[in-house]
Amino acid sequence: MPRTPPPLRLRDLAVTSPGGRALLTLPKLAIAPGTATVIRGPSGAGKSTLLMALAGLIRPARGEIRWGETDLAALPEPAIARFRRETLGFVFQDHMLFEELSAAENASLAALYAPKAARAGLAARSEALLTRLGLGARGARRVDSFSGGERQRIAVARALATDPPILLADEPTASLDRANADRLVADLMSLARDGGKTVIAVSHDPALIAAADRVLHIEDGALRPESARV
Amino acid sequence: MFNALWHSLPLWAQDGAIALALLAPALLQAPLILRGYRLGPLLRGLLRRHAGLSLVFILLIATSVAIGAAITAQERALRQGSARAADKFDLIVAAPGSEITAMLAAVYLQPSALPLIDGETFAEIAATEQVALAAPIAFGDSWQGAPIVGSTAEFVTHLAETLAEGRLFESTEEAVVGAGVPLEIGARFTPAHGHGVADAAEAHDVAYEVVGRMPRTGSPWDKALIVPVEAVWGVHGLADGHGPDWDGTLGPPFDPSRFPGTPAVLIRASSLWANYALQRAFTTERTMAFFPGNVLSRLHAIMGDLRQILSVVALLTQVLVTAAVLAGLMMLTRLLARRLALLRALGAPRRFIFALTWSFAGSLILAGTALGLLLGLIAARILSGMITARTDVLVTAHLGWPELHLVAGFVSLTLSLALIPAALTIRRPVIADLRL
Ligand SMILES: Nc1ncnc2c1ncn2[C@@H]1O[C@H](COP(=O)(O)OP(=O)(O)OP(=O)(O)O)[C@@H](O)[C@H]1O
Ligand SMILES: [Mg+2]
Fold it and tell me: What are the strands, taking DSSP E only, across chain A?
């Protein structure tokens, strides 16, 4: 039973560096549930910073990060971790897998700390995901024997193994060649759409931009006003 | 109340309880920390990834545990072995002097020249009520470095109960040998004066025939060659201990006026309680009497101080190694930082990160401790073998409760210390670590 994603509402958001420099200022932003959003902008603009803040990995200096009723900016650390664990999937730029584990173990990593009752379902789902991503037969092999594109697909399986309503991705295709990037975008989007998930991805990938409902431009830590539907 | 209950427990129960109490911190924290998580795959992965460093830690811990366990096990084995070797020597009478020297000579057959007890005195001792056995122990000669001891057939029976082979000596040309003497029944040997090797010592022109062999006793007597005391006197051109009309029957009674003397006399009392009375009776101007067991206890008590120093040294190495391990674990948590940050970014609970770090440290500690116990046992066995070869006192080292207590304390202490790096890892900044 897929869970309906909560709507995202940012208000008066300000993220500063530990030194106090303003990294990101967002007076207002809303993202509808079940939509796909791509964030783009020049290097150093604050795209990753925004994504980390949305995942609760960076605590803003002020403002609200509301996923439905939950304001991550006001939540204590353990509750944020629980939110990440239960509601978010995350795909990083360079897959960030555990090289010493197998593909299947990486994909079902969350089972290691999930409640006992959820483990079997998690393992089954990660296996099904690997199969759908074309890696099912090689699940038992160690990750260091996989290509870049395959690793990134394992990372997608890991992000979706808990069936999270929200998927965040930071330049998921940046390290891939065109063919692999296209395949990943297709897989990612079809899986997300099938599950009715909210997708927010930092990317310059034309395929991903083309598949998105909405593209946001960030420059110098601020949203450009022309950010709108493509 | 508690005291009475405690002392009513059998020893093993007390030792077990102490071990449990020492292990309690580890046993209590482990389930609390590990509860509900599957750490195996990540733990194995991390150990494999940092195999070299992990091995260094394990060896470091193993060495310190081995030193501690070997020292205590070895020291105990030495105490037990030396006590067992003195088992048969209830009460020794010798001319006044050092009890320790007399004991080393009469019980452990260490070469030394003791003043002699004369015939009058020996006769008085032998005639004392409650004396069941008074056997001269006359040493001084040797064969290929092994001691030749003159005594009586009763003494051989007292020492060996039943012979492993052959019979008791019946004439002054016969000998009964210890289990470790490389002479067959029927073989002949020539005694040398003093304790050198055969050619260095002055040889006597007599030969003995081996007629019997004692079973193994685990004492220096396994290397001894026992001959009739009359033969020892005869070899040295002394009186034979008997009157002019002696029919050649060996052993007591001896004629006091023709008794050349003996450096030591073994006494067995007819009943246990008589021992102390006999010791008092034989403590005179001409003789001293002592229980080798008591002398040994006093020696062990003196060595007890040494033992304490050794255990402090062992403990210090362990504390140092623990500190080194702890410092190493801090480094290791930095090494692990990126992967731990990744887990946290994915939503792993902090307690999971804590448990992973702690059990990583715990695996090293447990593996090191187990290896250390094994190495310690092997080291103690080798040391024991060397001591046995040197002294003929059978010393066998086992791991016992003291070692288990030491190890239990060590494991609890280090596992508790491992909470520190575990607590530090969950305080690290996730984002900064992810960028490492
Ligand atoms: N912990 C930090 N301390 C100081 N400055 C930081 C910190 N984290 C990020 N920044 C700065 O914030 C700005 C935005 O960084 P961010 O990583 O969000 O950029 P980005 O848009 O993702 O760029 P890229 O496309 O290169 O990934 C950069 O100037 C960066 O140097
Ligand atoms: Mg970035």
Answer: 8-16, 22-31, 36-40, 62-67, 70-71, 88-91, 166-170, 198-202, 214-219, 222-223
